[in-house]
Design a protein that fits this description.
ion transport, ATP synthase subunit b, CF(0), transmembrane helix, transmembrane, mainly alpha, single chain, rod-shaped, about 0% strand
């Protein structure tokens, strides 16, 4: 193999091409690769941060759910106690009203008993007068003997 001038010329052109590439082509490519690597690292860091925030948010949501469940259970218990109190109050009022109705019915029955006794006394007095009239075979004057009939009524 012979070394001649073309080989040296090609060698010089190759070194010029390598120098040109290292000076003008390689730095933008290296910068682009470095920028891309930085963007990927930033994206991964942001993903890790978002994952941590999501975990925190899920924990806060769970805490709020537990709190709201406890609060709703307390409200349901309060409502049930209030409903029971209302039922007891209604029972008390119904019992009281029933007692009033029974008392009123007893008073009315007593009044009717008194009226029936008065009517019976008047009927017995009338029968007694008729019986006495038949026994004596003479007519008894009710106006004259009103005092006698009044006393008879009170005795009966």
């Amino acid at each position: 193999m012979s070394i001649n001038a073309t080989f040296f010329a090609q060698l010089v052109v190759f070194f010029i091409l390598v120098m040109f590439t290292m000076k003008f082509v390689w730095p933008p490519i290296a910068k682009a690769l470095d920028d891309r690597a930085q963007k990927i690292a930033d994206g991964l860091a942001a993903a890790d941060k978002a994952k941590a925030e999501l975990t925190n948010a899920n924990k806060r949501v769970e805490d709020e759910l537990v709190k709201s469940r406890n609060e709703s259970a307390g409200r349901l218990a309060d409502a049930e106690r209030r409903a029971q109190a209302i039922v007891e109050e209604a029972k008390g009022k119904a019992t009281e009203e029933g007692n009033k109705i029974i008392a009123a019915a007893k008073v009315e029955a007593e009044q009717q008993t008194v009226k029936a006794r008065e009517a019976l006394r008047e009927q017995v007095a009338a029968l007694a007068v008729k019986g006495a009239e038949q026994i004596l075979r003479k007519e008894v004057n009710a106006g004259v003997h009103a005092d006698l009939l009044g006393r008879l009524k009170t005795e009966l």
